[in-house]
Amino acid sequence: MKLVMAIIKPFKLDEVREALTPLGIQGLTVSEVKGFGRQKGQTEIYRGAEYQVSFLPKVKIEVAVKAEMADQVVEAICAAAKTDKIGDGKVFVFDIAKAVRIRTGETDGDAL
């Protein structure tokens, strides 16, 4: 089992979700986060004063999948989230040692 975590631009969330649905992804977790990378933030003007915003709003998506599906999920996320501009985000893949569905007690692949 793998945990695929992606940090993407917020306006790309619906496109990513739509790209994952045909793969049989039945659930995912979404968190609103802030961060920076090569973008180094941005400058904004508020009430005539200029401010440097160090952390930009992003969305973090986490999807637990069977190991054989991880590459397909990564490809789908990358294709849907890509804008060809700086700040498109990153995808990370982690191993999951164990998973349990609390309601039924199912474990590992059955719990997904």
UniProtKB/TrEMBL annotation:
O-UMP-tyrosine PTM positions read: 51
A single Gene Ontology molecular function, please? enzyme regulator activity
Q: Which Gene3D superfamilies match?
A: 3.30.70.120
Going by the UniProt record, its keywords in alphabetical order are: Nitrogen fixation, Nucleotide-binding, Phosphoprotein, Transcription, Transcription regulation
**Transmembrane residue ranges:** none
Coiled-coil residue windows: none
Q: Which InterPro entries does its entry note?
A: N-reg_PII, N-reg_PII-like_a/b, N-reg_PII/ATP_PRibTrfase_C, N-reg_PII_CS, N-reg_PII_urydylation_site
| A cellular component term, taken from the record's GO annotations | cytosol
Share what the entry says about its subunit structure, partners included.
Answer: Homotrimer.
Query: Which family, according to the similarity comment?
Result: Belongs to the P(II) protein family.
Write the protein's name: Nitrogen regulatory protein P-II
